């Protein structure tokens, strides 16, 4: 195993004395006196027979031994018996490489937990690596008890999507949606393209259609243990990112010559000219086409309920359909054939129709090309909006990514939570079986790439499919982050993405990142990791930020979300005057100390 030039290999019996000396040097680095070190010597000494018996590993670079670790015990629990780095190499990634290797080894032999008895000086390191503190033992000289979770192998969907390695990411969000009637975002601002940084678990090169702060991607690289990420911010008029790249031959050659998979947010004719792939098959982005597929597949999936749907071709026809449904006491869902995040969807109760001036007024307000009227599926708020994501590999095989629970306000997508236990087992299994069948049908028609199936649930908890997305999605970001964190921190994470959290004041990007850094420290105290996902909307007329939260428990996620929402709202108290007009620079000017004359 090699990371940043560091190789981890098995310890050798003839190295026992040298490794024992390294351990004592490392312990002495923290200022312990000779008497204390002498008392620890026997406990920290390695014998030749320990190399195999304690699964001893050493980290080397350039032929030099830089660190040593041992994994004691047997499945299902193991103990990190030791992890020491030679003092000159502390802070250079040696400890991280050893730690990750030992977690992977624990997973390989079948362990579900790794316990750690840590020196208090090492506690910050283990916390940063994702371990959790379990207590302090007074009888052990103040050593800190901790636990960690083994790392597993990459999921089949990761290998199908990225080949299991690094990838090139294209933030061509606006370009993808512009292919479809009414598909482009209304505001035309490409903030959502920032999410393409998370198109795969380990980016090597990212191309975005808007400028971003280098500090943002540096922080992500530190939190997610990415190697250096090359970021190119390209001016893309009208969101045509792929064409803007084609107009830059040197960058295009760099991408093509990298030999890495290129993950576009969504495939387009322009992106295919950049990096040729299988033929485009995007017909099921249409909500009418996806509905026909749902009806065809539903007979083999009795746990699925498919809402009735009909197209309307004129304002008069829309008014008639709405009037008939309102007279029957039925709520209607009016949706465009294409749309982004619920932007082209409206839910109308009979009261909404009447209070809004009647069905003709509603038809004038809502009608557009390709309009559909769909049955409204009543349901409870709990588990109301499940989603399923999958990947159709280049060979046509379908790989389930997972299920999650979306947060939808009205008809607008706000975020998602993914991870173990987020959905009841039966609901997750039904959504997975149906979503996989959708992927197999897409594959048979020639589609290749990421896809998503969104649902609502009825009062009985049955999922009703509402649309297919043939591209990366907001939930895709959560699944990618979960995979990366499970790989580098071990165990299985819950991840919640919140794409549009309001800010109480307008902030330029540097100040917004500073604010998020402070929130991240406070979330860490709750056992949650905060990552900034959209850092570019802080100066919008209605400013917002996108974040992802990761934790081991639903309680930690909920507490971290409450903290972030409160912290964002509290920004308004830092300014005088209307929050929307205040600026970070004005705050800085007010905070400058006055010069006192003596």
**How much helicity do the residues have?**
25-40%
Q: Oligomeric status of the shown chains? A: single chain
> Which residues sit in consecutive blocks of at least 5 with pLDDT less than 50?
576-582, 584-598
Distance between the termini: 64 Å
How would you sum up the global shape?
elongated
| Average pLDDT number | 89
Radius of gyration: 27 Å
Biggest β-sheet, characterized? 8 strands, mixed
Order of strands side by side in the largest beta sheet? 1-2-3-4-5-6-8-7
Q: Any overview of this molecule?
A:
The protein is elongated. The model is unreliable at 576-582 and 584-598 (pLDDT under 50). Strand 18 (398-409) and strand 19 form a beta hairpin. Strands 1-2-3-4-5-6-8-7 form an 8-stranded mixed β-sheet. The protein has 20 helices and 24 strands. Helix 1 packs antiparallel against helix 2 (34-44), helix 12 (287-298) crosses helix 16 (425-444) and helix 13 packs across helix 15. With 598 residues, the chain is of the alpha+beta class.
């Amino acid at each position: 195993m090699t990371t940043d030039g560091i190789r981890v290999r098995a310890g050798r019996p003839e190295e026992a004395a040298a490794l024992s000396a390294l351990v004592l040097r490392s312990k002495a680095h923290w200022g312990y006196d000779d008497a204390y070190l002498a008392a620890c010597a026997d406990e920290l000494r390695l014998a030749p027979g320990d190399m195999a018996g304690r699964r001893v590993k050493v980290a080397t670079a350039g032929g030099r031994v830089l660190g040593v670790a041992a994994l004691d015990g047997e499945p299902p629990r193991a103990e990190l018996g030791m992890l020491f780095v030679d003092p000159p190499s502390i802070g250079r990634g040696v400890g991280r490489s050893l730690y990750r290797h030992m977690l992977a080894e624990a997973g390989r032999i079948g362990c579900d937990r790794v316990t750690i008895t840590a020196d208090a000086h090492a506690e910050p390191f283990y916390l940063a690596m994702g371990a959790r503190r379990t207590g302090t033992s007074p009888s052990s000289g103040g050593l800190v008890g901790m636990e960690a979770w083994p790392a597993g192998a990459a999921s089949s969907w990761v290998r199908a999507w990225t080949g299991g390695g690094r990838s090139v990411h294209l933030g061509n969000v606006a370009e993808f949606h512009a292919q479809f009637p009414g598909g482009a975002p209304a505001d035309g601002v490409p903030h959502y393209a920032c999410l393409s940084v998370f198109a795969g678990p380990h980016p090597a090169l990212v191309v975005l259609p808007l400028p971003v702060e280098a500090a943002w991607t540096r922080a992500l690289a530190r939190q997610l243990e990415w190697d250096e990420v090359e970021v190119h911010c390209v001016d893309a008029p009208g969101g045509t990112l792929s064409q803007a790249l084609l107009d830059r031959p040197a960058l295009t050659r760099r991408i093509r010559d990298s030999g890495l998979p290129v993950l576009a947010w969504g495939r387009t004719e322009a992106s295919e000219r950049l990096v040729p792939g299988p033929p485009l098959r995007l017909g099921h982005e249409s909500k009418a086409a996806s509905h026909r597929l749902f009806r065809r597949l539903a007979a083999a999936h009795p746990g699925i309920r498919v809402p009735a749907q009909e197209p309307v071709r004129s304002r008069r026809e829309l008014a008639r359909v709405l009037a008939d449904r309102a007279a029957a006491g039925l709520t209607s869902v009016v949706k465009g054939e294409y749309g982004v995040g619920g932007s082209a969807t409206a839910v109308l109760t009979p009261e909404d129709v009447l209070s809004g001036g009647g069905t003709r007024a509603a038809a004038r307000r809502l009608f557009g090309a390709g309009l559909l009227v769909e049955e409204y599926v009543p349901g409870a708020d709990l588990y109301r909006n499940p989603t399923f994501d999958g990947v159709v590999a280049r060979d046509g095989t379908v790989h389930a990514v997972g299920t999650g629970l979306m947060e939808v306000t009205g008809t607008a997508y706000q975020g998602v939570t993914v991870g173990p236990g987020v959905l009841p087992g039966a609901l997750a299994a039904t959504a997975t079986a149906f979503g996989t069948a959708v992927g197999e049908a897409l594959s048979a028609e020639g589609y290749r790439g990421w896809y998503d199936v969104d649902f609502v649930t009825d009062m009985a908890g049955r999922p009703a499919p509402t649309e297919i997305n043939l591209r990366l999605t907001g939930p895709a970001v959560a699944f990618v982050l979960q995979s990366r964190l499970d790989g580098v921190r071990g165990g299985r994470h819950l991840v919640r993405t919140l794409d549009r959290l309001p800010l109480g004041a307008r902030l330029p990007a540097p100040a917004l990142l500073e604010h998020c850094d402070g929130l991240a420290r406070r979330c860490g105290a709750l056992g949650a990791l905060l990552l900034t996902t959209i850092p570019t909307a802080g100066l919008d007329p209605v400013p917002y930020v996108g974040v992802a939260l990761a934790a081991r428990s639903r309680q930690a996620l909920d507490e971290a979300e409450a903290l972030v929402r409160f912290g964002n709202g509290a920004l308004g108290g830092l300014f005088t005057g209307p929050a929307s007009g205040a600026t970070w620079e004005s705050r800085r000017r007010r905070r400058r100390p006055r010069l006192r004359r003596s």
